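Hypothesis: this fold can be encoded by more than one sequence.
Test: take the C-alpha cells below, design a sequence, compare later.
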C-alpha cells in the first residue's frame, strides 16, 4: 500500500481542500502517515498570503525531500499559482488554483510511471467553481464546507485575488447536498467558508441569505457558522434572518483591518469607520450578546502615531469580543509593497502588542457576561475529566460529566470564568 503525507499551510479553505485530497487518496487505497516521517508521496498545500507564508511553503518542500529523497513531491495551491517560475520549486507534480480535484488520480498516475506536466493555468479567466467533495472530517465535530472561491476586492496588501482568481460559487443545490452528507456522517455544526464567503452567489444571481434559508431546513444540522463576512455584505435582511434563526451561530467575524479611515483608503477597503461602527451597533441591537470578532493589521506603510491612536480608539469603542492582530507583512506583487514609508519591525511589534492587550481585556469583559446565563454548547473532546466545546458565540466552555457527551449539544448553566474559558453545569440535551 502506498503512503502519503500532507502539510497544510494557511486558511480554512486550504484545510477543506486538504481534507478532500486525503479522502480522494484514501479511496484509491493510499494510507496517510505523519509528514515528519517517511512517505511515498508528500503533498504540500501551500499559502502565499505573505512572503513569510511563501517561505514556509518552500521549507515544507525541502523537508519532504529530506524525509525521503525518492518520494513523489506534489506542491499545490496559492504559492504555486503566484510563483514566477513554479518549475524551480523542484516538485514532481505542480497544481495551481485549478484542477485540484484531479490531484489524487494524478498522483496515482505518476506512481504508475506516467509523466505529468505542470497544471498551472491563468486563473484570472477561470469562472467555474471546482467542487472538492468532503463527506466527513475525521476526529472533528465541526465540519468546514467550502462554498465560494476567488475575490474581486483587490485590497492593496493582498495577493489572494491573483492566487485564487475571480469570485465563483458552488451551485446552491450542490451546497445543500454536501451539507446533508456531512450531517449524515454525524457533524452537528457546519462552518461555511470561502475566500470571500459573504459574496456567495453573486455570480449565480443569488445571495448568501438564499443559501442560509435552505440550510436551516436540514433537520439534524444544529448549527451553521459563517467563517467570515465583510461589513458591506451584512444587509438588514440578512441581520434579521440571523436574528430569527437560532441555528445560525451568534458569532460574526467581520474584518475591519484598521481603525483609521485614511489607512482603510490606502488599503482599498470599501467602507468607513463610521459605517462599520453603525453596522455593529445595529447588529447588537437585534442580536443581544452576539460575539463580533475581527482581523486587524498594524503598522501599514505610512501609518502615523495619530492613525495608530485612531485604531486604538476604534477598538475601544467597538469592543470586539476578540481580535486576530497581525503586523503588516510586505507581499511581493501587491500595491502596498511599492508604497513608501514602511515601518520598522519594532514599531509594528509594539503596536500589535498594544492592540492585543486591549483585545484581551475586552474578551475577558465579554465572557464574564455569561456568568449565570444558559448557553448551548457543542462538545468536542474530553480532557482531564472535563468535556470541552464551544458555545454558539464561539466561547470555549467546559463541564464535568459522567457520560460521554462528545458531538452532542447540551444546555449549560455558566458558573464562572476560569483561565479564559467558561465553566458550567450540564443541563439538558438540545
Amino acid at each position: 500500500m502506498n503512503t502519503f503525507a500532507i502539510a497544510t499551510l494557511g486558511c480554512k479553505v486550504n484545510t477543506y481542500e486538504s481534507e478532500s485530497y486525503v479522502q480522494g487518496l484514501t479511496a484509491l487505497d493510499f494510507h496517510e502517515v505523519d509528514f515528519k516521517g517517511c512517505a511515498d508521496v508528500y503533498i504540500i498545500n501551500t499559502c502565499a498570503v505573505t512572503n513569510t507564508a511563501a517561505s514556509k511553503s518552500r521549507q515544507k518542500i525541502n523537508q519532504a525531500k529530506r524525509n525521503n529523497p525518492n518520494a513523489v513531491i506534489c506542491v499545490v495551491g496559492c504559492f504555486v499559482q503566484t510563483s514566477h517560475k513554479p518549475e524551480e520549486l523542484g516538485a514532481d507534480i505542480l497544481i495551481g488554483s485549478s484542477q485540484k480535484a484531479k490531484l489524487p488520480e494524478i498522483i496515482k498516475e505518476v506512481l504508475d510511471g506516467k509523466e505529468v506536466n505542470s497544471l498551472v493555468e491563468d486563473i484570472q479567466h477561470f469562472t467555474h467553481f471546482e467542487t472538492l467533495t468532503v463527506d466527513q472530517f475525521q476526529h472533528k465535530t465541526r465540519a468546514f464546507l467550502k462554498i465560494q472561491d476567488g475575490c474581486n476586492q483587490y485590497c492593496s496588501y493582498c495577493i489572494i485575488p491573483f492566487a485564487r482568481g475571480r469570485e465563483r460559487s458552488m451551485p446552491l443545490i450542490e451546497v445543500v447536498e454536501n451539507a446533508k452528507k456531512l450531517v449524515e456522517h454525524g457533524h452537528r455544526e457546519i462552518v461555511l467558508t470561502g475566500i470571500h464567503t459573504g459574496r456567495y452567489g453573486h455570480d449565480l444571481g443569488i445571495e448568501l441569505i438564499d443559501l442560509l434559508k435552505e440550510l436551516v431546513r436540514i433537520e439534524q444540522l444544529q448549527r451553521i457558522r459563517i467563517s467570515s463576512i465583510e461589513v458591506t455584505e451584512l444587509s438588514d435582511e440578512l441581520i434579521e434572518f440571523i436574528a430569527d434563526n437560532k441555528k445560525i451561530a451568534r458569532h460574526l467575524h467581520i474584518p475591519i483591518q484598521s481603525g483609521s479611515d485614511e489607512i482603510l483608503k490606502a488599503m482599498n477597503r470599501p467602507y468607513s469607520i463610521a459605517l462599520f461602527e453603525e453596522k455593529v451597533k445595529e447588529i447588537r441591537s437585534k442580536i443581544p450578546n452576539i460575539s463580533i470578532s475581527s482581523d486587524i493589521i498594524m503598522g501599514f506603510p505610512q501609518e502615523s502615531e495619530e492613525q495608530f491612536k485612531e485604531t486604538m480608539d476604534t477598538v475601544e469603542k467597538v469592543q470586539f469580543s476578540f481580535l486576530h492582530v497581525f503586523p503588516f507583512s510586505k507581499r511581493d506583487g501587491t500595491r502596498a509593497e511599492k508604497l513608501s514609508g514602511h515601518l520598522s519591525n519594532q514599531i509594528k511589534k509594539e503596536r500589535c502588542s498594544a492592540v492585543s492587550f486591549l483585545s484581551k481585556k475586552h474578551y475577558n469583559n465579554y465572557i464574564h457576561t455569561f456568568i449565570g446565563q444558559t448557553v448551548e454548547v457543542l462538545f468536542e473532546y474530553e480532557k482531564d475529566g472535563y468535556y470541552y466545546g464551544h458555545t454558539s458565540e464561539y466561547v470555549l466552555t467546559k463541564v464535568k460529566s459522567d457520560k460521554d457527551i462528545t458531538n452532542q449539544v447540551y444546555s449549560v448553566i455558566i458558573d464562572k470564568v476560569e483561565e479564559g474559558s467558561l465553566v458550567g453545569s450540564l443541563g439538558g440535551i438540545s
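The CA atoms of residues 250 and 290 lie 5 Å apart. The mean pLDDT is 95.
Hypothesis status: open.
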